[in-house]
């Protein structure tokens, strides 16, 4: 293998790594507090959380600290009922 061929091979491997890294970042779900709408009945009343609620809670887990600081979402995310929903869904309560 010549130096030029080695350089091209290294360049292509590096370019592919960057491309795959970008692809993985862009496929992540964005933070959307409205995605937790399926959890509203469980947080606002004594209903147990649904499977959909638990799935959305897990999906939005990286965003929960952001939600706990949002002026509108904060009272709901930090409520005692929300903590019970976290436990029922077997999700850790965010420590921000």
Automatic annotation (TrEMBL):
Naturally occurring in which organism (per UniProt): Solanum bulbocastanum (Wild potato)
Q: Which residues form the Bifunctional inhibitor/plant lipid transfer protein/seed storage helical domain?
A: 31-96
Concerning Gene3D superfamilies, the annotation shows: Plant lipid-transfer and hydrophobic proteins
Q: Which UniProt keywords apply?
A: Lipid-binding, Signal, Transport
Instruction: Give the matching PANTHER family.
Output: BIFUNCTIONAL INHIBITOR/LIPID-TRANSFER PROTEIN/SEED STORAGE 2S ALBUMIN SUPERFAMILY PROTEIN, BIFUNCTIONAL INHIBITOR_PLANT LIPID TRANSFER PROTEIN_SEED STORAGE HELICAL DOMAIN-CONTAINING PROTEIN
* Molecular function via GO: lipid binding
Q: Where is the signal peptide?
A: 1-17
Q: Tell me the SUPFAM superfamilies matching this sequence.
A: Bifunctional inhibitor/lipid-transfer protein/seed storage 2S albumin
The record's listing under InterPro entries reads: Bifun_inhib/LTP/seed_sf (IPR036312), Bifunc_inhib/LTP/seed_store (IPR016140), nsLTP2 (IPR033872)
What name goes with this protein? Bifunctional inhibitor/plant lipid transfer protein/seed storage helical domain-containing protein
Q: Which GO terms describe its biological process?
A: lipid transport
Checking CDD domains in the record gives: nsLTP2
